[in-house]
User: Fold this.
Amino acid sequence: MKNSQRGSGHLFSLMVIGLIVWGAYVTVYVPYEHRKSMDEFRSNPPAVSPAKMAVIDTYKAKPAPAQLPHGVYSGSVEQDGYPMTISFTFGDDGQITKKAHIKTYDFSASARYRLDGAVMMFSDVKGDAVLFPQPGEPLEVISDSEIHIPGPDKPLVLTRQ
Assistant:
């Protein structure tokens, strides 16, 4: 009877060691990889689709808005199936700060901007570069209290706060 139980503790020990290794993987390595990929995502300008490039090219041919926005404008939009809130803060000196919140993530960055037609062109980006597309971003000033950021489907509507 004693001989039939020999070695059965080894299997249990291996299972416990495997569980500890899996727990370490899930609690240490997975968050590390996620943080690393998020840092890479944040540090690069967003990819721009051909449809968005067509909109940008159209707005480059338009004249610059006569009235430039000033102050904080915010709005919300759906991004990849999730609601996103975003704000643009326009300063007097050609400075813009963007803040966005999607799911549990907060993004923030500032840059200098100049107009090429009705397209904001960005330089000196500090913070999350993913908020500033490299080819620029079209701008349509509707009134002192509302601006639109045109896109291929519908514009992002931002209202002054």
